[in-house]
Amino acid sequence: MTDTTETPLGLDRRNLLKTGAAAAGVAAGSGAITGFPTIWAQNIKDVTLRQFGTGVSNLNAIAEKVKEDLGFTLQMTALDSDSVTQRTVTQPNSYDIADIEYWICKKVFPTGALQPMDVKKIKYYDQIVPIFTTGKLTPESTIAQGTAPHTVTFVEGPGAKTFAKEPTQWMTLIPTIYNADTLGIRPDLVGRPIGNWKDILDPKFKGKTSILNIPSIGIMDAAMICESAGLIKYGDKGNMTEEEIDKTIAVLIEAKKGGQFRAFWKTFDESVNLMSSGEVIIQSMWSPAVTAVKSKGIPCVYQPLAEGYRAWGGGLGIGKNVKGIVLDAAYEYINWYLSGWCGAYLNRQGYYSACLSTAKQHMSPEEWAFWMEGKPAAAEIKSPDGKPIEKAGAVRDGGSFEERMGKVACWNAVMDKDRYMVRKWNEFIAA
Amino acid sequence: MSVAAEAAPAAVSDAPAPKRRRRAPPFAPYLQAMPLGLILGAFLLLPIAAIVIVSFWDYDSVQIYPAFVTLNYAETLGSWVTWSTLLNTLKFVAIVWAITLFVGFWVAYFLAFHVRTSKMQTLLFLVCTVPFLTSNIIRMISWVPFLGRNGLLNSALVEAGIVPAPLEFLLFSEFAVVLAMVHLYSLFMVTPIFNTLVRIDRSLIEAARDAGANGFQILWNVIIPLAKPGIAIGSIFVITLVLGDFITVRFMSGGQSASMGLMIANQISLLQYPAAAANAVALLVLVLIMMAAILRIVDIRKEL
């Protein structure tokens, strides 16, 4: 009780100081508030956190659970990756929480649109999967090519705009969701085993393939394909030279002119429609899209390939202008995100969550064994909203967490030659 | 020019009669024109000026920097992509314009000359606008399940034994783009042409017939010349809409085809505003040239 009376007073004084010291004091002032939910219980209910991001993690179930567990409102907007990038930079006042991918972070953080977060206020920081802190899944793992998340996770201090090489106290994004991507196929229509990225160029599938038209991601898929087909040898797929970009785009243009592709997709739903309508039988895909096709009763496999996966990861960042009680709510939301329920929800969709230890407590042993350990399902596996998606005995495509995340060949990337790459990519689309 | 020349003497001849009311100060006309001027200035000239300015700025993957570089234009105009995209866009313009003109003229002709009562004309015209009760995008997207490989049309054709395998060109092709555009933009041609056709004095047609003209001669020498303003206005609508279109091209071609608008949209989404602005300026110049050409052929103001 004494705590509750004292702290608001302190805060009032602080608020006064804040007003007096104008903008300069804001960051320090809000940083000093170590928000206790009990104290703020009443005020925080009026808070609305505005979050936006790609469709993959803007899930209504999460907003509902936030309302139930934390009391405040989480308002979500889903956009495509390009719009997300654009909005993060150009409209920093239109959101509190940016749910962005790590390669987007590499682009937007240097603009100062987001504020770094103090890891001391992140309760489960120590339990975050090391991919995001040291870059290594296990101490022996090698770091994959591309924009590996740990390279853009830390900055030196609150005002810093350049990334730190080692873990520091200040994080740009709190990882929430990540996965290893590969090609999706229609096993009933491809008519032969698929084992390599280059299979997408097989003349047999002429006019029945698709890749995604988001340059930063599409170029990586293209690189996996070219490398697999033995057409190009890359120094670093995640940071190509102009010559490598030229060659990659030339391969794509040739395939396009030869009628290899049926369409290019930009949003999640487009990929689902292309696959479920049978327009396309092998294409770049995201895992929940595969689940979405399957839940329509159409066979679809997220095919593991010999060359490994292209991985991606997303996280929550806080807008630069967020302060006071909203900032407290934001930290609370982030701590809640890592506390297990949400992680279990995401794991059940086929993604991976950042704190596996907490998520495990919210999943049944059968679910954990199926999704994370790659074991045959002991019971029917249901999607988070209760729809059956796998029968007992089924095994997850690609196996366990270690098998999948351990075989990442590259991360979605922003290259030094980004501007050049985008121009060449546009040539491919226009060709 | 001719309009201004006509208006001036009219004002002078009117002058003596309402002499008392000519007390308005000399700047009154400017005051009267000010609201429109302000609106056009704030919402048309200012944004265009901003686009022109930004088109000279420098940029990297996240930010734009005030500068004066001509690199954006050099990249835009020096790249074969721009020219092939432009050519592609103009191809769409030509095809869609020709088809909508043909369809639009005959729909308007039917409404104006074959439907007798004006009540029925209005009713049928309203029927033409019914599709516009749904959004542009919905009307376009609804073609996708119809034209797809396993879509309604292909299933019907295959089952009826007309074609052995589904026709691939129906969807995600330039055919699909043109089809959707014709569907979306025909009404923009129908409306202005219908508007000019109904105002043609019927006695002119009777006179032509009395003078011995056959149906084709009446159409060619009487109706079409009188319908020219409507055709010009409809053409302006259709041409500018097709030139600026990006969403139809993207969805109906499945991202396989490009237009100037799509290129600009791509650049904007990649935060390359200066490049997008340079493209937009190039497109604007093109649109203005085409409009000037149309207005040179048909003096809309004189004929309305």
From TrEMBL, chain A:
The keyword Signal applies. It comes from the Bacteria. Transmembrane segments: none annotated. It holds the Pfam family SBP_bac_8. Keywords: Periplasm, Signal. InterPro entries: SBP (IPR006059), TAT_signal (IPR006311). PROSITE patterns: TAT (PS51318). This is Extracellular solute-binding protein.
Automatic annotation (TrEMBL), chain B:
It comes from the Bacteria. It is a multi-pass membrane protein. It is found in: Cell membrane. SUPFAM superfamilies: MetI-like. Residues 86-296 form the ABC transmembrane type-1 domain. Pfam families: BPD_transp_1 (PF00528). The keyword Metal-binding does not apply. Keywords: Cell membrane, Membrane, Transmembrane, Transmembrane helix, Transport. Belongs to the binding-protein-dependent transport system permease family. CysTW subfamily. This is ABC transporter permease.
